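Can anyone check this?
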Amino acid sequence: MIKFSGKLGLQQRVLPSYRVPFFDLLAEQCEGGMSVFAGRPRPVEMIASGQTHIAKYKEAKNIHLFSGAFYLCYQQGFINWLEETNPDALIVEANPRYLSTPSAVKWMRARGRKVIGWGLGNPSPFRRGAGVRSRFINQFDAMLTYSQRGAEQYAALGFPREKIFVAHNSVSPAPTFNVERPTLNVKPTILFVGRLQARKRVDYLLRACAEIESRPRLIIIGDGPERAALESLAKNVYPSAEFIGSKHGAELNPYFEQADLFVLPGTGGLAVQEAMSYGLPAIVAKGDGTQDDLVREGNGWQINPEDYGALVSTMQNALSDIARLRKMGQESFRIVSEEINIQKMADVFVQALNT
């Protein structure tokens, strides 16, 4: 475990509960300690906020302005927090919509200290506004991003490639176990875990299962605004679908162990890495790039979002060869054991700080 010898400050707009293990792990690698500055989400976002145990947490007052494409956020108390904690280095979300970031960068610069940006990338580098985004990210000493695609997008905006660090998005530690599955199940089992929102396209998943000749067992874990509508749809198109409701932590274990294939037909979804730690291959929709390095040809399939036909054909292909699925599941397990987990992610953060 590599260390950062100084004190780290880390800013987030919000502190979601799934990030707490990573932040506490990163705090353990900062010899001078670590403090997190983050506010509360908007009620409409329905994000479960967390509380760190090792990293110190200071709640910001988020002032949300406008919505949609015009959304902005100002975090009151940012400079006061910097004065109280006096960090040797600062990591901030690289989002130009956060209005308090430039003053924080200026505060750190006046004291000769480094500031690192952390973001998804820039999916539209050649559209209107690219100049503004380029000036924004070039104020940082280094950039942390979730994927190789994000790294290339920042490089396209003119940020020095050697100062871009890829810390693969991770919410789980490396697995310490391996699930042994039978060579052949009587009926293959498909698992979905996530919030039941329209963009997750669980409706596609229900309809796709109805088109598969083997009529797989479908387990849907999660809750959300679309649950009632999806349960109603299931009665008509796939009555055997099992809606389990919301489960967390160890409650998920038996469902991962029973499954043969993990499917996320829509955008988003953090559960894929956990599914891989149970030796599951995955079908995921292409999104912001965070899944690019996680789901590969050797352990799964990436499909275009909103492409129902691709979902059906890919699921049929996946379930046509159970022996192949088992091998792909073994590769999933290897990836999260050796390459992509919260320890590897923390090590890249510390590497960026030490460079």
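Reply from J.R.: I decoded it. DSSP finds twelve helices and 15 strands in the chain.
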